[in-house]
Specification:
The protein is of the alpha/beta class. It folds into two domains: 279 residues, 3-Layer(aba) Sandwich (Rossmann fold), CATH 3.40.50.2000; 177 residues, Rossmann fold. It is built from 17 helices and 15 strands. The relative contact order is 0.12. Its EC number is 2.4.1.-.
Length: 490
């Protein structure tokens, strides 16, 4: 089956105002409500999925919390609010994960129901809810309202398979050193340092662990299951998952301009809880030679100790490579005394910013390496743009991502933690940077693999690719559901 081309009206739309003018002139094949967990790493891929659906002729609405509502704005997408019970301050106002999640389940179920019912009497009744897998209660809401429901897993298929096994009882907690390696269908042998960090100490993050396991609580009721990966990236893993539940791989969910280019002017996700310094970063990169800059970012959630910040700082300085490092405002006080003056005062060798447009940076010719925490979104972005990576995982699924970057996809290296100090030492960072950035057999192979994965990512999401076909299957099923329920619009 060939990919469904963008509807003709989309080719002439360049703003949400244009979209609103056209919306009543077209025939939608369904209305999908997309519900992300309200953090940057979850909003981005689900919002991108909503844009993919809209580009194929569906009406797509993103439901988010009142607190994050103003942070989301994307052409062709409607954004509406539901309540998590903390409308003024979100997660911070809740002060604990347990309180936030319980409140979101209670208030979210009620307000999501209200939102679905509000649309029932319009020209565009909601026909399907695609929800972040952290919210299994959203499936119950969908079924209670007689519409379709599908979870969206924002982790890799591998990490989803691991937690699925724990939920099913075939992998027991805590996982100890003597239990390793852990062998799962389609997954390379995983040692303790390759598994999500709290599996050997489940009591350390009880709310997070409960949330991860609850993802699988009612999957048998779901109409589809989506995962932000692609077939050639985790082919054997998805076969193994198929023994338990059937997932459709629809990734990579990164803005179209960086992969297939089929969505007009799709250069960013359309959601930012921070204000990037795009012009300043780009202007600085333009002064640097091709493949000469090390881009460093540990994502929105990771917080490094002061000692590790110092080791990374002096490692970057000693390496001699140009670097651009994203350091959150809350972390800048951990930078060693004299480091800013020594490396970034004139901005000749280094630049430190509090946030930036990561995709634009990774796409820039001057960037030769990505030092990353190996969060799944960052991993997919680096892979989709063909940038070699140095993995510095800290917790959760980042450890598994680093394992695949180094040993499965072979498009980077992974730092070794100094056993004496328990963090990454400066000498280790310098060694890894030299291995990836300098000309040599290992570096050439890494760059060759990075280029290969970039092409495979593009192929998957392009017209007729494996992920594109999976999305088209959803469209065809929704069309059939609409006809059966007499909900098709025209």
């Amino acid at each position: 089956m060939h990919g469904i081309p963008p509807p003709p009206w989309l080719l002439y739309i360049h703003s949400s105002e244009d979209y609103n003018l056209q919306i009543d002139l077209i025939a939608h094949e369904g209305h999908v409500l997309v519900l992300p967990y309200p953090s940057q790493g979850h909003i981005n891929p689900l919002l991108q999925f909503a844009k993919r659906l809209a580009s194929k002729g569906l009406k797509a609405t993103v439901a988010t919390t009142h607190y994050t509502l103003s942070s989301i704005s994307a052409p062709y997408i409607t954004v509406e609010a539901i309540s998590d019970g903390f409308d003024d301050g979100g997660f911070t106002q809740a002060q604990s994960a347990e309180v936030f999640l319980e409140s979101f389940k209670s208030h979210g179920s009620r307000t999501l129901t209200q939102l679905i019912k509000k649309h029932q009497t319009t020209k565009y009744p909601i026909t399907c809810v695609v929800y972040d897998s952290f919210f299994p209660w959203a499936l119950d809401v969908a079924k209670e309202n007689g519409i379709l429901g599908a979870p969206f897993f924002t982790n890799s298929a591998t990490v989803s398979a691991i937690f699925s096994r724990i939920h099913g009882g075939t992998l027991r907690l805590p996982v100890r050193l003597e239990d390793c390696p852990v062998v799962l269908p389609g997954v390379p042998p995983l040692h303790l340092e390759d598994l999500p960090s709290f599996l050997n100490a489940p009591e350390s993050y009880p709310a997070y662990l409960k949330m991860k396991l609850n993802q699988f609580s009612n999957l048998e009721k779901a109409d589809w299951i989506f995962c932000n990966s692609f077939q050639s990236l985790e082919p054997e893993v998805i076969k193994g998952i198929g023994e338990q539940w059937s997932a459709k791989l629809i990734g990579p969910m990164v803005p179209s301009s960086y992969v297939d280019g089929r969505i007009i002017d799709d250069k960013g996700y359309g959601a930012s809880l921070w204000k990037p310094l795009e012009h300043q970063c780009t202007k600085w990169l333009e002064t640097k030679p091709k493949n000469s800059v090390v881009y460093v970012s540990f994502g929105s959630m990771v917080s490094l100790s002061q000692e590790e910040m110092e080791e990374i700082s002096w490692g970057l300085h000693q390496s001699g490579f140009n670097f651009l490092w994203v350091v959150k405002d809350s972390e800048t006080h951990k930078l060693p005394k004299g480091f800013l003056e020594l490396t970034t005062k004139s901005q000749e060798k280094g630049m430190i910013v509090n946030w930036c447009n990561q995709l634009e940076l990774l796409a820039h010719d001057s960037v030769g390496c990505f030092v990353t925490h190996c969060g799944w979104n960052s991993t997919l972005e680096g892979l989709s743009l063909g940038v070699p990576m140095i993995g510095v995982p800290k917790w959760a699924d980042q450890l598994t991502g680093a394992k695949f970057i180094k040993d499965v996809w072979c498009l980077g290296v992974r730092v070794k933690v100094d056993a004496k100090i328990g963090i990454v030492g400066r000498e280790e960072l310098v060694s890894c940077l030299n291995e990836v950035m300098n000309v040599g057999e290992k570096s050439l192979q890494i760059k060759k693999n990075a280029k290969k994965w970039r092409e495979l990512a593009k192929e998957a999401i392009s017209e007729g690719g494996s992920s594109d076909k999976a999305i088209d299957e959803l469209l065809m099923a929704l069309k059939g559901f609409c006809k059966e329920r007499d909900l098709c619009l025209g």
